[in-house]
Design goal:
With 312 residues, the protein is an alpha+beta fold. It has two domains: 112 residues, no CATH class; 111 residues, Ribonuclease H-like superfamily/Ribonuclease H (Nucleotidyltransferase, domain 5). A hairpin with a 5-residue loop joins β2 and β3.
Length: 312
């Protein structure tokens, strides 16, 4: 899909709503309140259930709910985000859409990032490398798992015939067994083989119905990136992406949104069909619940001054 094709296919609010209807209710209308499949249109943008008379719009309960901007502009934003190989900054989105408010562009981008994680997505399986990495600048005399003032993320990488497959990345509180096994349980299918280093935080995974391949770094004569090359390559690419697209400074409490975007893009890196990426993001956008600017800003419940992680 080119921009010209986008503008031709989705040049009215009606065409955008019709497309969202097909995505949200591919087999026909289903009332979100009672599950009835019969409805009639009300005032062009609403559907009234023939059974319980509940009224709903095609954008209710999606990231588009309560928007004051036209859906044609939202579609253009989604096309722009998915067509940029390395992502887009809020400033870039503001410029391309001609938005007067940077806050609007920032909110839209974060809403779209929340839609990059498909509800109920499949877990990784097979042979999976797992390790942790710190996101943040260097701190003299503080390295490895003892570092402070950085954010620790766990990274899992499917390895298929010595090549990187899908990935998962998540923020973890620390490198304890509870944090690491929780990440593994949520992201990797039981029965898979997990390749990790010798850190004792991974010792419990075999009792959780996983197989384990251990590479002990100490005394091996090799560095971690040599023993776990795939997961370390992903960590390097993540930091390079944060530096290149976002100038190395992201909000600590919003880092998980950026991790979701990186994962979305990385897992679809071989896709040559931009239209399919556009569709996938739209598909996710109608499946997740709406959120507000206030909720995004205060997502951790702390209204104190935002802290930024500087990636170097």
């Amino acid at each position: 899909m080119t921009l010209e094709e986008l503008e031709r296919q989705f040049n009215t609010e009606a065409s955008c709503r019709d497309y969202l209807f097909q995505i949200r209710w591919p087999n026909g209308f289903v009332c979100p309140k009672c599950g009835n499949d019969k409805a009639w249109p009300v005032r062009k943008v609403l559907f009234e259930c023939a059974k319980c008379h509940h009224q709903v719009s095609v954008i209710a309960g999606t990231i588009f709910q309560d928007t004051r901007k036209p859906l044609t502009m939202w579609f253009r934003a989604i096309w722009w985000v998915t067509s940029q190989k390395n992502g887009s900054s809020a400033l870039g989105l503001q410029r391309i859409l001609g938005l007067n408010s940077y806050q609007t562009a920032w909110t839209w981008l974060h809403k779209l990032r929340t839609a990059m994680v498909r509800p109920g997505r499949e877990t990784l399986s097979g042979y999976v490398e797992v390790d942790e990495s710190y996101i943040g600048g260097e701190e003299p005399q503080k390295r490895g798992r003892g570092a402070i003032k950085k954010v620790l993320v766990a990274i899992a990488v499917e390895v298929v015939e010595e090549r990187i497959g899908r990935i998962r990345i998540g923020i973890i509180k620390d490198a304890s067994a509870d944090s690491l096994t929780g990440f593994i349980r949520n992201n990797i299918r039981k029965g898979s083989t997990i390749h990790s280093d010798g850190w004792n935080g991974y010792n419990e995974i075999e009792s959780m119905n996983y197989k384990r391949n251990v590479s002990v770094i100490k005394g091996s004569g090799k560095d971690a990136h040599e023993l776990l090359p795939h997961v370390h390559l992903v960590a390097t690419l993540l930091k390079r992406w944060l530096l290149g697209t976002h100038q190395g400074a992201v909000s600590e409490k919003h880092l998980d949104y950026y991790l979701d975007e990186f994962t979305f893009r990385f897992n679809r890196r071989y896709s040559g069909n931009r239209g399919l990426l556009f569709y996938r993001l739209l598909e996710n956008a109608v499946l997740i619940e709406t959120t507000s600017y206030k909720a995004l800003v205060e997502k951790d419940g702390n209204e104190s001054k935002t802290q930024y992680i500087v990636v170097t």
